[in-house]
Amino acid sequence: MTDYGEALRYQRDMAGLSQRELSVKINISQQNISRWERGEVLPSIEMCIKLADFYGITLDELVGRHI
Predict the structure, then answer these.
(1) Which one of 1, 15, 47, 63 is most buried, by most CB atoms within 10 A?
(2) Which pTM was predicted?
(3) Is 9 part of any domain?
(4) Helix 19-26 vs helix 30-37: crossing angle, to nearest 10
(5) Domain, as residue range, for 46
(6) What tens digit of pLDDT does each residue of 23-34 get?
């Protein structure tokens, strides 16, 4: 099973952003980003789309899914 939190953190790290910087850019709390990356909660599909668009990647790439 994919570790979604790890995949989300990987994309953020690849963009060279801290959780705080990302939170400002996408207008979501840093605490939510932290919870996603720790695997405590999953972001909504709408937020996943927003993140994928922000990073310029597909939803599959965002969550580390390889076909």
Answers:
(1) 63
(2) 0.88
(3) yes
(4) 120
(5) 4-59
(6) 999 999 999 999
Token pair belonging to 59: 């939803």
Per-residue model confidence as pLDDT tens digits over 39-54: 999 999 999 999 999 9
Interatomic CA distance for residues 40 and 29, integer angstroms: 15
Query: How remote is the C-alpha of 55 from its chain's centroid?
Result: 9
Which string of DSSP letters, residue by residue, matches 30-54?
HHHHHHHHTTSS---HHHHHHHHHH
Count other Cβ atoms within 10 Å, centred on residue 9. 17
Give the CATH number for residue 33: 1.10.260.40
Instruction: Report if residue 39 sits inside a domain.
Output: yes
> In total, how many domains does the chain have?
1
Q: What is the pLDDT of residue 63?
A: 87
Alpha carbon 41 to chain centroid distance?
12
